[in-house]
Amino acid sequence: MLQRRRFLVGTGLAAAGTVAAPAIVRAETVVKMGTLRLVHSMPPFFYEKFAAPGTRIEIVVFDSPTDGKNAVVTKSVDFGTFGIAAGILGAAVGEPVVVVGSLCNKGMGVIAKAGSDMHTIKDLKGKKVGIWPGSTQEVFILERLKMEGMSVKDITPVRVPFGEMPAMLQRGDIDAYVGAEPGPGLSISTGQGQLVEYPYGTAMGGLNMIFATHAETTTKNPDLVRAMLKTHRQAVEFMSANTPAVVEMSVQKLGANKAAVEQALGAHNVEYIWKLDATVEGQAKTYAQHMLNLKQIRQLPDFATFLNPKFSNELANS
After folding, report:
1. In the β-sheet with 193-197, what is the strand arrangement from edge to edge?
2. I need a surface site. Which of 1, 33, 149, 164 has the fewest CB within 10 A?
């Protein structure tokens, strides 16, 4: 949660030998920022470079999108970046999660065992496919199966965390997976996997991750939202123009394989963004409708409260 720490220094001794009252020399604002252990979740690691004076960013890393969303809902973090699916799951049941910006498009990949006969989505029929339930990737693959006249019943879905997908594919525990970078990049760069497709040919486009906060933060501390979204924008613009810096930071902070990160970025399979514009809003609503049709949610979120483009629009017009 948001913390402010005051640092005090004495002003010396008065003539009578009495210590003067301490003087406040500065106050530090600590902002807890949640992110995921993924290449397309890297922007928060660059925030410190652009943070407002007196602001310190404390990064909290999660392995699950749902855990990242829950941290925002419980105020364990002040802001969080996670997949749109996790946000919709929370908002659909009335949780106070609010999207104020976007984070990344793309960052997904359907990968099969190298040398296999799986080259299209239809080729996944009857195969063991690694999928992380409740993830953005799950919604995308279910929609792609539907577009090909298939359903999840035509494959054998295997519950696999993103970080374990490349190793399980290599061992033969699964035949393919629907992963998140740098997983696909790792499988391709090591020659262990082959690309089936980047699943962006749906009405959801490449929508993936968003920038969110607790509803109370938008009403009680709007200046903080503005400041953090500005920092986010600056980080994203820097990263888009400095790919080597992103590669280096991914290796340093995530322990990611350098070749895997270079593969993901070189294939333009990661697109860092910040605006919550009309395109993102439309894709999010389409995404939620898909989740409703798939019975992953029982009702649509209240988009008037779940999606708040006010701060993004202000920043874009400033």
Report:
1. 156-159, 128-131, 176-180, 108-113, 193-197
2. 149
Range of the domain at 129: 108-197
Q: Are residues 307 and 294 in the same domain?
A: yes
Q: Is residue 7 pLDDT above 70, yes or no?
A: no
Of 137, 171, 197, which closes a domain? 197
- What are the pLDDT digits (tens) for 72-95? 999 999 999 999 999 999 999 999
Predicted confidence (pLDDT) per residue in 186-222, tens digit: 999 999 999 999 999 999 999 999 999 999 999 999 9
pTM of the model: 0.84
Q: With contact defined as beta carbons under 8 Å apart, do 33 and 57 qualify?
A: yes
Would you say 98 and 90 are in contact if contact means Cβ atoms under 8 Å apart? Answer: no
**How many structural domains is the chain composed of?**
2
Residue 137 lies in a domain: yes
Q: From the centroid of its chain, how far is CA 230?
A: 17
Cα(234)–Cα(204) distance, rounded to whole angstroms? Answer: 26
